[in-house]
């Protein structure tokens, strides 16, 4: 494994732990968190699969290394909208 791959793995480990820590601080019940990001733009942001206890399958959590002070209000608003969509049963189709 070369140095760039080692840096990427270390970054992934750190980002994943950040997601796990955040879920714990927020006292959000969840299942498994993916071992690797479902999507990433190293070293800026990653999406992680987080197993839902309420609905079978996975949802996504964002981890990032972007400056948060400028983005916090926007991310808070968008996060609230996503949570309201997730909780609205009319937004989800039943699988055939």
TrEMBL record:
InterPro entries linked: DUF4826 (IPR032251)
Name assigned to this protein: DUF4826 family protein
């Amino acid at each position: 494994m070369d140095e760039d791959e080692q840096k990427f793995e270390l970054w992934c480990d750190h980002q994943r732990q950040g997601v796990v820590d955040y879920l714990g601080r927020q006292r959000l019940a969840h299942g498994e968190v993916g071992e690797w990001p479902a999507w990433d733009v190293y070293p800026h942001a990653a999406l992680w699969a987080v197993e839902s206890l309420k609905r079978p399958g996975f949802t996504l959590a964002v981890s990032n290394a972007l400056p948060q002070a400028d983005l916090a209000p926007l991310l808070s608003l968008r996060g609230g909208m996503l949570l309201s969509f997730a909780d609205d049963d009319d937004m989800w189709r039943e699988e055939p």
